[in-house]
TrEMBL record, chain A:
Keywords: Amino-acid transport, Signal, Transport. It comes from Thermosyntropha lipolytica DSM 11003. CDD domains: PBP1_ABC_LivK_ligand_binding-like. One of its GO terms (biological process) is amino acid transport. Belongs to the leucine-binding protein family. The lineage of its organism: Bacteria, Bacillati, Bacillota, Clostridia, Eubacteriales. This is Amino acid/amide ABC transporter substrate-binding protein, HAAT family.
TrEMBL record, chain B:
One of its GO terms (cellular component) is plasma membrane. The keyword Ligase does not apply. This is Amino acid/amide ABC transporter membrane protein 2, HAAT family. InterPro entries: ABC_transp_permease, LivM-like. Its main location: membrane. It comes from the Bacteria. The chain crosses the membrane at residues 12-33, 45-62, 68-88, 95-114, 126-147, 180-200, 220-242, 254-272. GO terms for molecular function: branched-chain amino acid transmembrane transporter activity. It is found in: Cell membrane. It is a multi-pass membrane protein. The keyword Cell membrane applies. Pfam families: BPD_transp_2. Keywords: Cell membrane, Membrane, Transmembrane, Transmembrane helix.
Length: 390, 295
């Protein structure tokens, strides 16, 4: 008797939990009215890609704070909603649906990863809500529909400029390429590099592969040493790049590693130490060195608020919010159906992460491309290359 | 029916309900293997990914109809369950758990390097064929079949293997055969859930089916109550809804989630409805009075 009662009480409690708590959530959102503009944050605050989401959230919060201090957009207050998607595709789909149907956001800012952005973009497009990714560099994003935008340095525009720079400024013509096979970013970036090198008349003398998570690259580096390459193009992430350079140092020869913004991680310098000193160059859309006046102001506010250096993601999330605000102001409407057309017309927008123009197909062209190297254990700007809209 | 339904239920709830349905199918599959037969399998997500990828590749690259793709995905998963089951089910307990973890990893790495499956980027662009009514009907079908199976002679044989394998064998149960059969059926259901999942999300990548996913499914079975159909269904529902409800506590969500799991396991070590069957519930109500008299 006692046992049974215990059991039924436990069951009742769980059932109550199940039904009451979502109900509470509903009550909360029912209070939202027309005079608040809501923006949903997409990004991971925990999990393997949290390094991109956390600074992104900070940048977005800063932008919204600033907008509200200036009186909001079209006289309405702006409110950000920040859910953690853990870098998981099922999670981001639930969150995007929640933002749209529950919170009634007008736009979502995120996600920094291409695959996750596509999942959310599908949902946004179907429901007529703008999605603006400050990080998705891969192919097939804006093709999803006219509500989908992104503001980030695209590999297809940056890589030819970088290859050009390598051949003209440095005189490197023999390239070795190493791909990380279990890394989606890397497998997508390698063909872009190959095409650019072939087009500009460079020679690929070695193609090799590794896997993320491996630690011993003796075989690859031995082959690299024999190949006679002037420069090594590595398309993966920072951890493996540092380990490859350590091996290069151990085998005692001289070569520079060039890669994309996947190398933009503080661990590169920590793991590589003097093996990566001025021996690794990567491109990205943002650098806090030699700032423009816009960037200068942003850097100051960011350091004041958070006491740390902003990175590319904080700058691009910040810009995304500001660009959305501008589009709404210009369209004099907060209806995604209306302001998305204004958004698509964006031209030569001077943001904190450089100049942005949307092409007719809504793909962004960002300029300049920053080339970054490691000096004294810190990231330093090496050169800036202007990108021209063809 | 779905259009009618969408008018009254908001899309967020509908989405959670579909995910609950898919998770119920997944968990019931693992329940056959781990809950009923007592074979600790920690690689259920591997079979799910086989179903998900097979179905997605068929509809994407070969234009197969969804029903056929779903069926092929399930059969493919079942086939691999069978192939893997024959050698591995001679192992027991921890050893079997290790082999199944290993197998799930092999599948994951295979899909990482599989050209047709989009390698590390994954597959994208599947139509959203999976609807609420479809999942609802399939869940009912799976539950009824499970229930019929478990109360049959075969079901009792499976329970017997869990309770005492040697005794079961002595009573004439073909233990290896029954274990392989349970493993195959469980994999079939995982494949089915995988096919539904890939055509609901529209995007799958190898990392969606990692080790943590397997653990999550195992959690549903253990939390709900090993071997109990209503329990496993409740477990799947709770573990799908819980993370959504906990969005209120924002950044501490995962902490609360873990704490709740610990609390539940302390107070209900056999799961919410450990070993409770549908007809046990009825039985319990009937014997209640008898027990009261005695005490």
């Amino acid at each position: 008797m006692y046992k049974i009662r215990n059991k039924s009480i436990a069951l009742l409690l769980i059932m109550a939990l199940l039904f009451i708590i979502p109900g509470c959530g509903q009550k909360g959102s029912a209070g939202s009215s027309e005079d608040v503009i809501k923006l949903g944050f997409l990004g991971a605050k925990t999990g393997p890609v949290a390094n991109y989401g956390i600074p992104g959230e900070k940048g977005m919060k800063l932008a919204i704070e600033e907008l509200n201090a200036k009186g909001g957009i079209l006289g309405k207050k702006v409110e950000g909603i920040y859910e953690d998607n853990k870098g998981d595709s099922a999670e981001i789909a639930s969150i995007a649906t929640k933002y749209i149907t529950r919170d009634k956001v007008v736009a979502m800012v995120g996600d920094p990863c291409t695959g996750l952005t596509k999942v959310a973009a599908d949902i946004a497009q179907k429901n007529g809500v703008v999605i603006f990714s400050p990080g998705a560099t891969g192919p097939g994003v804006v093709e999803i529909g006219d509500y989908v935008f992104r503001n980030t340095l695209l590999d297809v525009f940056a890589v030819p400029a970088v290859v050009d720079w390598m051949m003209k400024e440095k005189g490197w013509t023999n390239f070795a390429i190493i791909t990380s096979l279990n890394n989606g970013y890397s497998t997508a970036l390698t063909p872009v590099f190959k095409e650019a090198i072939n087009k500009k008349g460079g020679k690929i003398v070695l193609e090799d592969s590794i896997n993320d998570g491996e630690t011993d690259f003796t075989a690859q580096v031995t082959k690299l040493k024999r190949s006679g390459a002037d420069v090594l193009v590595f398309t993966g992430y920072y951890t493996e790049a540092a380990l490859i350079m350590n091996e290069v140092k151990k085998q005692n020869f001289d070569i520079t590693l060039v890669g994309g913004d996947g190398l933009y991680g503080q661990d590169l310098a920590k793991l590589g130490k003097d093996a990566v000193e001025e021996k690794v160059i990567f491109y990205c859309g943002f650098s806090s060195d030699q700032p423009s006046p816009e960037t200068e102001a942003f850097l100051k506010k960011y350091r004041e608020k958070y006491g740390e250096e902003p990175d590319m993601f904080s700058a691009q999330y910040y810009d995304a919010v500001m660009i959305l605000a501008k589009a709404m102001e210009d369209a004099k409407s907060t209806d995604p159906k209306v302001f998305k057309n204004e958004l698509a017309k964006l031209k030569d927008y001077l943001g904190v992460s450089g100049k942005t123009t949307f092409l007719p197909n809504r793909e962004p062209v960002k300029s300049p491309v920053c080339l970054i190297t490691v000096k004294d254990g810190k990231f330093k700007l090496l050169d800036k290359i202007e990108v021209n809209v063809q | 029916m779905d259009a009618w339904f969408a008018q009254y239920v908001d899309a967020y709830y509908l989405r959670i309900m579909v995910l609950i349905g898919i998770n119920i199918i997944l968990a019931l599959g693992l329940n056959l293997i781990t809950g009923v037969t007592g074979q600790l399998s920690m690689g259920h997500a591997g079979f799910m990914s086989i179903g998900a990828y097979t179905a997605a590749i068929l509809t994407l690259h070969y234009g197969t109809s969804f029903v056929l793709a779903l069926l092929s995905g399930s059969l493919m998963a079942a086939f691999f369950g069978f192939i893997i089951g024959i050698p591995t089910l001679r192992l027991e307990g921890d050893y079997l758990a290790m082999v199944t973890i290993g197998f799930a990893e092999i599948i994951r790495v295979f899909f990482l390097n599989f050209e047709l499956g989009g390698k590390a980027v994954g597959l994208y662009g599947m139509q959203q064929y999976t609807t609420f009514s479809m999942v609802f009907i399939l869940v009912i079908l799976v539950v009824v079949l499970n229930w019929q199976l478990l109360k049959s002679r075969y079901g009792r044989a499976l329970y017997a293997i869990r309770e005492n394998e040697i005794a079961a064998e002595a009573c004439g149960v073909n233990t290896t055969g029954m274990k392989v059969a349970a493993f195959t059926m469980g994999s079939f259901l995982a494949g089915l859930a995988g096919g539904l999942y890939s055509h609901y999300m529209g995007y799958i990548a190898p990392q969606d089916f990692g080790f943590m996913r397997s653990i999550e499914i195992l959690n549903m079975v253990v939390l709900g109550g090993m071997g109990s159909i209503p329990g496993v269904m409740l477990g799947a529902a709770v573990l799908t809804v819980l993370p959504e409800m906990l969005r209120i506590v924002a950044d501490y969500r995962l902490l609360f989630y873990g704490a709740l799991l610990v609390i539940l396991m302390i107070f209900r070590p056999n799961g919410i409805m450990g070993d409770m069957r549908l007809y046990d519930l009825k039985q319990r109500l009937r014997t209640k009075e008898v027990k009261t008299c005695r005490s």
